[in-house]
Amino acid sequence: MNFMASKQPENSLLSPESDSQRTLYPYVTGTSVVALKYKDGILMAADMGGSYGSTLRYKSVERMKPIGKHSLLGASGEISDFQEILRYLDELILYDNMWDDGNSLGPKEVHNYLTRVMYNRRNKFNPLWNSLVLGGLKNGQKYLGTVSMIGVNFEDNHVATGFGNHLARPILRQEWHENLSFEDGVRLLEKCMRVLLYRDRSAVNKLQIAKITEDGVTISQPYSLKTYWEFSAFENPAQGAIGSW
Amino acid sequence: MFRNQYDTDVTTWSPAGRLFQVEYAMEAVKQGSAAIGLRSKTHVVLGCVNKANSELSSHQKKIFKVDDHIGVAIAGLTADGRVLSRYMRNECINYSFTYESPLPVGRLVVQLADKAQVCTQRSWKRPYGVGLLVAGLDESGAHLYYNCPSGNYFEYQAFAIGSRSQAAKTYLERRFESFRDASRDDLVKDALMAIRETLQGETLKSSVCTVAVVGVGEPFHILDQGTVQQMIDAFEIVAEQEGPAAEPDTDAGQEASAEPEPEQGAAAGEGVAPMDI
After folding, report:
1. CB distance A109–B99 less than 8 Å?
2. B138: nearest CA in chain A?
3. What is the ipTM of this complex?
4. Which residues of chain B are within 8 Å of residue A108 when distances are taken between CB atoms?
5. How many CA atoms lie within 13 A of A96 on its CB side?
6. Which range has the worst mean pLDDT, B48-57, B212-221, B264-273?
7. Residue ranges of domains in chain B, CATH in brackets
């Protein structure tokens, strides 16, 4: 509430009214995305949860989408900003197709375009509140990269966002190798997703795994991971605790 | 072409459906000094004749590097050519910055053609008086395009523009089938031969021409005068022998192929390298 008459124009960054013009915090968010390169292309996994703060509110959010013929985009963070990015990319791919020549934007080009968009928004103090994973392949060349909401971008053989960076990447660093088979890749991703399910409070047990190969994109039907909660250490956890806590 | 009542501005059609101002702009291209281009599967070579206003002045720059994978040779109003080269460089650099990838040459020529078309449909503009031979590489291989002042563009295996370009075109038409699989050096030699055709009698020296190459693994660059002179020297001696053989070549078909051979055999005996082009 502004009790004092503001002498600043509405669009000045110094006046409080301008704050409603830029993103301050996210509302509906997705959690980690994990991806790795395998023999035939890229494998990516993300759960289908959309959290509203601490509430696990939406449980059928598709956080991975194909982009053009050669790329796959996974996002964590603000879901509405992800949808906005999909609109930008849709327009980009549309104009690319309208040239109607033999050329098409590959994953490297899309990744760099996204980096420019994210960084420019960050410079205006109005970020798109997402961490993106862009994977794909073109002419047999595999590509996997990531961009954060402040425009930090890099490529690697395996990438993750959010909690995935802390819980999944150490597993990938140990167990990833060149030319993983499809089954081994899925097994590795499931291992990472299971750890995230146990330890990330915003994770939901409903996930999809997407793959992109020279033949195109396939996103699996949603499924759940088996979990085990019968560890004796978790039985009667309050026993032996000191105090009323 | 003669003056008529429909040629005052570019936005007036003639009853025969022609835009005379655009055609006059194409005339300007024909007046400029020659530029030629030829390509193989992996390389494109551009060459041009350097015409200086007087012995005291330097010659105008007619070949421009647009990006590592694209170069352009111009004929006509070189000032217009310079401005268009700057536009092309800008487009390439902006694309590279956004996508970290080279701009496909096919897209650049379309943008260039659309830019030229605008000037054929505004009463306060005039068409660009320059023809551009755009040489470039993209995912689908090596390409050579010709951009007209009319806003049209065509892809070529080999082409020549500017004054006395018909002589070069005739030479290229005879030889173009061999270009696709030619080696880079053979392609440069063919370019020099084509330039020589446009000189019509004048000796071919590296000071008279400029040659540039772009290819797979070879960024666009202009060959230095020393290299060019060496290549000229390498085939000049042999070319002199081809001179007398060329005449029976045009007259009789198969007989001519037998005639140059004994001549070469005799020449080899005298210590001259056999013709390898």
Report:
1. yes
2. A103
3. 0.85
4. 99-101
5. 22
6. B264-273
7. 18-240 (3.60.20.10)
